[in-house]
From TrEMBL:
Biased composition (Pro residues): 31-41
GO CC annotations on file: mitochondrial membrane
Keywords: Membrane, Mitochondrion, Repeat, Transmembrane, Transmembrane helix, Transport
Low complexity bias locations: 13-30
Locations listed in the record: Mitochondrion membrane
Name listed for the protein in its UniProt record: Mitochondrial succinate-fumarate transporter 1
Solcar repeat feature ranges: 60-145, 157-245, 260-345
Stated family: Belongs to the mitochondrial carrier (TC 2.A.29) family.
Residues that span the membrane, as ranges: none
Region Disordered, annotated ranges: 1-61
MF annotations from Gene Ontology: succinate:fumarate antiporter activity
InterPro entries assigned: MCP_dom_sf, MCP_transmembrane, TXTP-like
Membrane topology: Multi-pass membrane protein
Amino acid sequence: MGGSEGARPRVSATPEATAASRMAAAASSSPSPPSPSPPGAASPVEEPRGGGGGGGRPPVPPYVKAAAGSLGGVMEACCLQPIDVVKTRLQLDRSGAYRGIAHCGATVARAEGVRALWKGLTPFATHLTLKYALRLGSNAVLQSAFKDPATGKVSAHGRLASGFGAGVIEALLIVTPFEVVKIRLQQQKGLSPDMLRYKGPIHCARTIVREEGLLGLWSGALPTVMRNGTNQAAMFSAKNTFDIVLWKKHEGDGKVLLPWQSMISGFLAGTAGPVCTGPFDVVKTRLMAQGRTGDIKYTGMVHAIRTIYAEEGLRALWKGLLPRLMRIPPGQAIMWAVADQVMGLYERSYLQPAHV
């Protein structure tokens, strides 16, 4: 009896209690909903800025990079055209008429007027606009082909190959015909239209096609391809390296450099190319200037290098190097200062909100 009195009768659970216990168990096992954040606080699912190459941030589209490059090209052309005119005159000087950069510039301004220092600006600006659009756009397309599918990053070899390919494309499609016209205009002395053989860019191009055939616009194509391919392979790789080393800026991390930072990286990246490609540039200028009719002194790139070396010495293959160093690094500084800002504006306006 005592044992039976101490045992409590088992009470069966009601259906309401069973349902309540199940709901409590489900609530304890499922994650609690996020509590509302106070104003100004970051959302818990918001990705941090600076996700980097593997952070899932979409890249800047090639057409945006092309537009950024074209705007940078316009600014560069307007600022640096006089240096390009001096470089061309020095490279074409066989008799030693000019004693240096300052003397060449002063002689041109005194004999032909200050406006002569901007000869060929129209084709130069147009050519830079199209060249940089094609350069940055094609490099972006080629880099996407060389990306590692797992990490989304481009190796050093892939970056070099992309830059060289972009340089070859721009040399064949844009640079060669525009530089032929520009050099023909720049080598003319005087400002009076009656005294000039070529009256302007369009007249110059038409005259070349009529007298030399369509291929006359591609005189010096091979050294131009070699020069531009090598230049861009070095420039894109160096620009990326200097951005990382100097400013901890990785491509696609969402960080936008200040204009002066872009100028420093662009200036440094633009110094190696002219030293390495000086002979190609001199040969290109000589071949483009002589045309395909009349006095044909050079029959091709190799013949031109040999002839210049035999007649003028080894240093002649680097004629115009100093004005190239005065033009190309500052030009890259100006172009990248503009291009980085345009691409940064696009990232802030269209790419950042996608991650919030």
